[in-house]
Design goal:
About 30% of the residues lie in helices and about 25% in strands. By secondary structure, it is of the alpha/beta class. Helix 2 crosses helix 3. It is globular and about 70 Å long.
Length: about 425
């Protein structure tokens, strides 16, 4: 544990990063900058990266006066923290008028001390499925080639290997190439939401671009079953997941998904079948549960309807439909998670805490996946019209309060396999928070 805050980082605008020992690093929550407790800093995990933030000046605490001020030496710096970790504070900076909108990544605060980079974060998940050190590039290349050779006419395998695995380095697709754990199954080229920070589609008039291309075809149930059945039969802790970042909303393809579940279960009962979704069609969710769906993960930026709606901009569904979908899966004794986009200063307000408590109680929620929100903070708050965020608890305190009130509620970052659901999650929450 650190006995002092790390020093502020800045970039020269050419990719070189330096420390400023006249300033301690601070963090941002909502619109404001705050000191970060020394115990909240951890070493930047393996697989993390640092970004320079163009035309933005870092905010720090003067080591002599204790006052906050700008660093005038260069551009601000933020960290991308890898999966399994949740950030407690955003990078703190002041934007210049000409500052461009930032790409769709997370922007966690970062600092430097004793020749190491630090970030304010917790490890929320002990699963190693997307650990940077666990990917052998040669084995990934060989595995992708093997799948492409074995399924030469399967459009979905081609999409997953050529686009997701080898081009975008999608962790789930890379794991598929290695024959392990969670198997991604994108199905829908269309969507019934217009999310501000959509990573697979952005209107031409927007100032940001999507980070990957969206699926352009509708796979058949036969194409889905062809490669998912062998995965479920042979992979360790196997899991098939409909609904990926390279597609729209999978519930728009629920008939095909239902047919594919029936086909899969003709061959094996091994492993879990999961859907990552916006939860917009409870009737479709019920039909999938009847077919054999084991778990659901519903994405949301907020448990408050008006904040959710401002970001997702849904077409022909309401926030209440998400709640109904979660309740439906629990009625079938299925596993329910929310993919909860963490934005310090919004996620941890008193109002959000109360709304989240209500959701957990009403739906008998099984798990929260504390996911870092990949979005430009200023752009996001401006888009949803938030000028004041309200009283804040702090992300760590929010987690602790929920864990105290709901001891059954699991915290993590990934969809668990049915073996982990039925067994021990092998995680003591207190070890991480």
């Amino acid at each position: 544990m650190l006995n002092q805050s790390p020093y502020l980082l800045y970039s020269d605008g050419k990719g070189n990063i330096y420390e400023d020992k006249s300033l301690y690093a601070v963090g941002r929550a909502g619109w404001d900058a705050f000191p970060v407790a020394a115990e909240d800093w951890i070493e930047l995990p393996d697989g993390g990266n640092l970004y320079e933030l163009p035309d933005r000046k870092s905010i720090g605490i003067d080591v002599h006066t204790g006052n906050m001020r700008l660093c005038e030496k260069g551009w601000a710096v933020a960290a991308f923290i890898p999966p399994a970790h949740t950030g407690l504070y955003l990078a703190a900076y002041e934007s210049l008028p000409e500052a461009p909108t930032l790409p769709l990544f997370c922007y966690t605060a970062a600092g430097w001390l004793n020749n190491k980079f630090y970030v304010p974060a917790v490890r929320i998940e002990n699963d190693i499925r997307q650990e940077h050190a666990g990917y052998d590039e040669q084995k990934i290349q060989n595995g992708a080639a093997h799948l492409l050779e074995n399924y030469p006419h399967n459009r979905l395998v081609k999409h997953l290997m050529q686009n997701c695995c080898l081009t975008y380095h999608c962790p789930a697709a890379r794991n598929l190439s290695l024959g392990r754990w969670e198997c991604p199954v994108p199905t829908s080229p269309a969507c019934n939401a217009n999310c501000i920070g959509c990573i697979s589609f952005q209107p031409e008039e927007e100032t940001i671009v999507s980070t990957q291309d969206r699926l352009t075809f509708r796979p058949t149930a036969e194409e889905i079953a062809e490669f998912t059945v062998p995965h479920l039969l042979h992979a360790p802790y196997p899991l098939v997941s409909f609904g990926q970042g390279c597609e729209g909303e999978p519930l728009l393809m629920w008939e095909t998904i239902k047919e594919s579940i029936f086909e899969i279960r003709k061959h094996t009962n091994r492993g879990s079948i999961n859907i990552n979704t916006n939860g917009s069609k409870p009737d479709a969710v019920k039909a999938l549960c009847e077919a054999g769906l084991n778990s659901i993960r519903v994405s949301m930026n907020s448990a408050q309807s008006h904040i959710y709606t401002a970001y997702y901009r849904p077409n022909n569904y309401m926030f209440e439909d998400l709640i109904e979908s979660l309740k439906t899966v629990r009625s079938f004794n299925g596993w329910t998670s929310i993919n909860y986009f963490v934005f310090p200063g919004m996620t941890d307000t008193v109002e959000e805490y109360e709304a989240l408590r209500k959701l957990i109680i009403e739906t008998d929620l099984c798990m929260i996946q504390w996911r870092n929100f990949n979005i430009d903070p200023d752009w996001y708050l401006g888009k949803i019209g938030v000028t004041e965020t309200g009283e804040m608890l702090g992300v760590k305190q929010l987690m602790e309060l929920l864990k105290e009130e709901f001891p059954h509620l699991r915290f993590g970052y990934y969809n668990p396999s049915i073996e982990r659901i039925k067994g021990n999650f092998e995680k003591d929450f207190a070890h991480y928070v």
